[in-house]
């Protein structure tokens, strides 16, 4: 009996183990960059709207680095192995999407489109049912990023009042309500997305409470 078959199998296992380790390192680097970016972007909660651009300018190097991190990861992944390892990096990509979505809102007061995600992160959002032919950001990861925006908006509504920007909560409330209505048009099949969507109503309620308190105090109409 030849043992060569087992030698060959071990070579294959060694290659897979090496790839697994490389992917882990790439994800580790991506997570580190996202943490720095998140810390910098959090400063948007402690400044008035007129100073938001300074925060956005400060985070630009991190978005450039995120693109590099994702590029490194993409080089390791072949289309046929994309979904085999996808769970390893999906949460990190969701975080990167959330950062991009919040940045677009802060700069333009609108929802980030898949084209915006491409501009910020350097990779397309897979909005079709076509087979994966290269590394992409999945539609689910994009939607997770959008859902994360609601919690940021609820914090921003409260913090805007703290820094004396009492007109901003109304702007946030209008946008959040429209975004929530848009989400309700989706027939969500993904359990994780649906569970997170169900929690949005608490963020909406928090924003509405800010509005109510301002009106009770006669600070807004």
From TrEMBL:
Keywords: Cytoplasm, DNA-binding, Nucleus, RNA-binding. SUPFAM superfamilies: Translin (SSF74784). GO terms for cellular component: cytoplasm; nucleus. Its main location: cytoplasm. It comes from the Eukaryota. One of its GO terms (molecular function) is single-stranded DNA binding. One of its GO terms (biological process) is RNA metabolic process. CDD domains: Translin. It is found in: Cytoplasm; Nucleus. Belongs to the translin family. This is Translin-1. It comes from Coemansia spiralis. The gene is tsn1.
